[in-house]
Amino acid sequence: MTERERAGPLEGERSVGGREPGPLDRPTDPEAGLPEAGSDLAPPEPTRAPPEEVRPPRGASGLALALSAVLPGSGHMVSGSVARGAWLLLGWGALLGAAWLGRDVLRQPTALDEWVATITLAASLVLVWGVAMRDLLRARAAAAVTAELDDRVGDSQWAIAGRHFRRNGLAMAGLVVIVILYLVALLAPLLAPFDPIAQGDIVHDSYLAPHGEHLLGTDQFARDMLSRIIYGARISLSIGFVAVAIAIILGSLLGAVAGYLGGRLDSFLMRFTDMVMAFPRLVLLIMIIALFDPSIALIIAVLGLTQWPGTARLVRGEVLSLREHEYIQAARALGFGRSRIILRHLIPNVLAPVIVAATLGIGNTIVLEAGLSFLGLGVQPPTPSWGTLVADGRQNLIGAWWVATFPGLAIVLTVLAFNLVGDGLRDAMDPRLRS
């Protein structure tokens, strides 16, 4: 052995574990300190996991499963997911309360709306119970998987958008309000305390202020305002949903065809769209409804057939940017037909802005329908609608303020909820707006 080998490695040649020193080998002297933040030697910052209330509980026990089988949501609270468990418990309790209020209807449903309410209540109870059990069963099956892998592996764009949407408190609050409103509309025969069109004693019970028996008062014909608002929700919400669905389907198809095929067909469809958009919409609605007898079907058709141009132009712009992508060219090379490319490749990839536009459009449609009903061109009495209820109360705003105030607040709350959900969806689905 030479003197150089007996002397051992020099200071600059000191090895670590039989290998050459690397960039991560740091001195153990405490005075040397740690690398500065942001340098190559600094350890990576831990990734912040999503809030626990948006994930199902992990490692659910047998006790949690047994509790949720009897009372959905209680198993989540035992497993540590308090917020999710509280929501499930609240929904389960509200549905049971609706069943108690409408127990007479549930015993023997006769009319179509009563059957719809009964089926909706049963489906909602099964849904809440199934969601609670599904969460716990998935948590039990995935107990061995770490949170980091569970949150990062296999995330699609829709899953990422859903996670960002759930972190938006205002958007989630709007979604809860929308779900409650539609449940109230579907369960109207179970929740309404009185017949919404039955007149009471006009001499003694008209314009009663809110009190114990009539929580929101009565109108000029002694009809219960709470019952009329609940049944009015069915008209306003259904008109908004169906009319926007017609406009979205028609506008998406026309916009996709115009954007993909191009040429003369694109020019013709866009010029026709510009012509429809050039007419003042409210004037056109009033003219069409004035020529025919106003009905719910006519109002839905007119609102849907006059709202599609905006969706068509939006979809056409998105399709123009997508039709030159590689996967569309590959579909053409494989010999796929135009209809298959449009329906299965183009339209699914433009759904994000269309969903946002549809959410915002429902609120606008509800306001427009309320305006037509206020003018007497919408839903005709005695069928209750929020617009007609506001119109009934305008004659006595000082003496009976509750007749117009509560339906007006229902309209404001509904439109605000849809706008909050639309803004939340826009922020979640657009990668440029995600914080």
- Helix share bin: 55-70%
Reading the helices and strands in chain order gives HHHHHHHHHHHHHHHHHHHHH
Shape: flat
According to CATH, what is the class of the largest domain?
A: Mainly Alpha
**Biggest sheet overview:** none
What's the multimeric state?
single chain
Short description:
It is built from 21 helices and no strands.
Give a verbal description of the structure:
- This protein is an all-alpha fold and 435 residues long.
- It folds into 2 domains: 59-141, no CATH class; 202-429, MetI-like (MetI-like fold), CATH 1.10.3720.10.
- The chain has 21 helices and no strands.
- The protein has helices at residues 3-6, 62-70, 74-79, 82-101, 103-107, 112-141, 147-152, 157-166, 169-186, 188-191, 202-205, 225-261, 263-278, 281-291, 296-305, 308-322, 326-333, 338-346, 351-374, 386-393, 402-429.
- Helix 2 (62-70) packs antiparallel against helix 6 (112-141).
- It starts with a helix and ends in a 6-residue tail after the last helix.
